[in-house]
Amino acid sequence: MNNSLTVERNKVITIQYALTNAEGLVLRDAASKPVSYLHGTGSIPARLEQELAAHRIGDIVRARLLPDDAFGKHDAELVCEVPLSEIPAAEQIEVGGHVVGSDDEGKEITFAVTAINNDIASLDGNHPLAGQTLIFEVEIQAIRDATDEELAAGKAQDDPQADS
User: Fold this and answer.
1) Calpha distance 131→44 (Å, rounded)
2) pLDDT tens digits for 13-34?
3) Domain spanning 76-124 has what CATH number?
4) How far is it, in rounded angstroms, from Cα 54 to Cα 11?
5) What's 11-71+129-153's CATH class?
6) Is the CB of residue 70 less than 8 Å from the CB of residue 127?
7) What is the largest CA-CA distance in the chain?
8) pLDDT at residue 105, rounded to an integer
9) Which of 152, 117, 158 is nearest to 12 (CA)?
10) pLDDT at 1 over 70
11) Is the dihedral of CA 104, 110, 115, 119 positive or negative?
12) Residue closest to 147 by CA, chosen among 135, 127, 162, 133
C-alpha cells in the first residue's frame, strides 16, 4: 500500500463512510459500497473536503457538518401543494416518488412527493438531508492521480478499486 499520497486537489479519493444525523439515525451504513470522488471539485460538501485534506490512506476522519456546511437549511419556499391536474400526465405521481419542476427563474428542481390528499400533491424541493446536522465517519481507502479525462469531466470515474 502506497501511504505517501495525501488527499489533495485533483486526486481521486476512494472512501468508505458511515453517515448519521445529530439524533443518531443511521443514514448510510459503513458496509455500503465505497465511493470515489475527484477532490477539489465540489462533488462532496466543501467542509468535508476540508476535513479530509492532507489525510492519507487508512486514516479515519470524523466530521460534524452543520446544515450550512452540508445540504443547507430547510427552505420553506421549496415546499408547495399542487393540484394533480397541473402535473403532466407523463409524470408518475406517488408518495415517495419524484417530479421535476422549475423555480421562478426556470431552473430545474426535483421535488419529492411527500403526500397526496384530495387530488393535491404535497411537494418538497429541498435536498432530503437539508436542515440536518450530519456526522460523517470516513475511512480513506485509496488515493490516485486523476486521469486527464477525469480532470476534463470534473469527476471521478466510478472506480472503487482505485490503486492504493
Assistant:
1) 17
2) 999 999 999 999 999 999 999 9
3) 2.40.10.330
4) 11
5) alpha beta
6) no
7) 61
8) 87
9) 158
10) no
11) positive
12) 162
DSSP state of 126: S
Question: Percent helix, strand, coil in the chain (nearest 5)?
Answer: 15, 40, 50
DSSP letter for 154, please: T
What DSSP letter does each residue of 35-99 carry, written as one string? EEEETTSSSS-HHHHHHHTT-BTT-EEEEEE-GGGTT----GGGEEEEEGGGS-TTS---TT-EE
Task: Give the cell for residue 114.
Answer: 411527500
Distance spanning both ends of the chain, measured CA to CA: 6
Amino acid 161: pLDDT: 40
Whose cell is 436542515? That residue is: 131
CB atoms within 10 A of CB 74: 15
Nearest-angstrom CA–CA distance, 101 and 88: 10
Q: Are 117 and 130 in contact (CB under 8 A)?
A: no
Domain ranges of the chain: 11-71+129-153, 76-124
Is residue 101 within 8 A of residue 109, CB to CB? The reply is yes
Amino acid at 111: F
